[in-house]
UniProtKB/TrEMBL annotation:
The lineage of its organism: Bacteria, Pseudomonadati, Bacteroidota, Flavobacteriia, Flavobacteriales. It catalyses: meso-2,6-diaminopimelate + H(+) = L-lysine + CO2. Belongs to the Orn/Lys/Arg decarboxylase class-II family. LysA subfamily. Pyridoxal 5'-phosphate binds at residues 218, 356. This is Diaminopimelate decarboxylase. It comes from Flagellimonas meridianipacifica. Keywords: Amino-acid biosynthesis, Decarboxylase, Lyase, Lysine biosynthesis, Pyridoxal phosphate. The active site is at residue 328. The modification N6-(pyridoxal phosphate)lysine is found at residue 49. Its EC number is 4.1.1.20.
Amino acid sequence: MDSNTLLEITREFDAPLYVYDANKIESQFNRLNNAFSGVGKLRLNYAAKALSNIAVLRLMNKLGAGLDTVSIQEVKLGLMAGFQPESIIFTPNGVSLEEIEEAAALGVQINIDNLSILEQFGNKFPNIPVCIRINPHVMAGGNSNISVGHIDSKFGISIHQIPHLLRIVELTNMNINGIHMHTGSDILDIDVFLYASEILFETAKNFKNLEFIDFGSGFKVPYKAGDIETNIEELGKKLTTRFNQFCEEYGKELTLAFEPGKFLVSEAGYFLAKVNVVKQTTSTVFASVDSGFNHLIRPMLYGSNHEISNISNPKGRERYYSVVGYICETDTFGSNRRINEISEGDILCFKNAGAYCFTMASNYNSRYRPAEVLWYNGKAHLIRKRETFDDILHNQVDVQELFDKSTPKAIVK
């Protein structure tokens, strides 16, 4: 999207504001589809946790995606957005058996990642098809917080526990219809991903009734000009060849599944914030905006680099700024960034704000969460209202009567 369009949208809906470009989401979806066009059966399950606004879920459903969910709430959102139960996979971690039972009752695909729940579920519901999440013990991902396939990860059933897993399946007579892994986010080394895939293929040979193999996702997107990213086309070519070969060996055409989240929506998102103060100190020029890590926590949490531009002054001379927020503690979006000269009142644009930005937003410091807008068919559509003070109070219970009672005075003798 161009700067003028973003400025017009900001003038209409005010800042701070999240804007999502539906055209970019569709082009990313098509790119991934095309990269794996050589696979007979391909299913792209959008990872709802990246951006779960129901309008975006409806868009994904229209494009033909399935849905990857990690909570019963995301399952229900998916059903409300029009996804058929069989196109939703439920891949939680550390949840209760009751939550998994609730999801199963809704008819979605269950994906279990620990032996305890697997055994309990198999004893109660041996006829419900189950996918198993494997931990391949492969370290992948751009940050330790988003690397989930290594040996110390809480996710998945260890490949060293396969004998125990098989014993549970045999004793409960469970129907295992899928095998799954997810090594982490921001994957760059395709060979590491393919190595982990070989572990998954080897594990799959233990199960005779598979319908699909799910390779997770974690594809890296570029965060700035010239940034490196996962070569989807190369991965598509190499994994397609190996997957088709495995299907021949297995004796059945299986579905190849992925769970892209960030890959589909990250670059489609823009976060717009207004500059409140330009503050010169002895060593730094701060541009303080009307937002903070309550709206965009990724730089503070992951050290992520979101490109920041001044769309109010795109031709101004570049100067160095540290862009900070209004949260009452260290709250930095970027340090010593070269940005076109900033004045108070300017609108700054943060790119790659589609994934894990609004979904990780909070009311910290009792601040409101911003509105969300979807740019679709050349028009801006409001898909979430900006919060108000009533929203802050909505679920609070005022127990004023506890403090209105008069306190007996002490008697002094």
